[in-house]
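Quick start: load a record and inspect it. Here is Extracellular repeat, HAF family:
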Amino acid sequence: MKVLVLATAVIAAMSVTPASAQSGRLVSALDPLPGGTFTRVRDINNNGMSVGGADNSSGAEQPVRWSATGRITALPVLPGQVGGTAMGISKSGTVVGSVTGTATRWAPDGAISELPTPQGQFSCTAYAINDTGGIVGNCANGAFRWANDGTIIPLPPVPGGLSAVVQAVNADGTSVGWSADNQYRYPVTWSPTGIAWRLSGLPGSAWDINDKGQVAGQIEVADGAPYTKYYAVRWETDGTMRNLGGAPGATKPNGRAAAINEDGTAVGDVTTDDGRQLGARWSADGVFTALGSIKPTDPQARTMAEAINDSGVIVGWSAEKAVRWTGYR
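Running the structure step on this input writes:
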């Protein structure tokens, strides 16, 4: 296929920056709740605040927020409930997520409110919020956008698809995710009015979109090899796709771009041929850097980046702990 030849050419030209090539790079664990051990971070805003989940002393996962200095705060849950998780945060500090299957929003002061459940739906989670207050999320049987005016807009699969999942939304209300049929899932973008179209003819997924319209994601390539190849990719505003690749030197590529900031820097993860999962950063011009592990001497310690802000601060997890990376520019 012509597309596969192009992808190979891009990967061959990709340059690599060793993680140790620059000083000032730091990976640090985010604090757990008192009495807890589990932490998982999902998003970071441009003020450096992060959100996610952490277990409390009773073992229940709580929605939490970390300040720019790393201080953890448990967010409240709905009356009668015991747990939940935070998934996204806006520049103003508004947080979205879920509490026991109810899509939830927390104001910057921590006040909690339920998002309206779409008609006929249940088990909903708000996944992301843009800086104008628009929210996207998923319920048991569909993907949706909660507009600023309170309108709930369904995000359907593409024609012929059976289901859809939304992951992110930008300032103008354009959303990204994937649409699935009986065999594959395909990267999809939705217009502000909910019209879906594929980003690629190849199977894959879209994970994030910036306000310019660049999209971070992954494609799957079956080219006759006895294994499927997974490439991290970035779609540009004109619809062209840049293949960011997998782990340098891997013969069985397995990469994913999970997030992208406004200058086009993407982060995610790659897996080496010997099974090590590495946090990954791709600069705006496609240069790959492995993100440092919280346990650099442990080859079994998995590392993955989940989000990046416009200052280049990255959050994710490493060795099953929520972490933050700074100094990667």
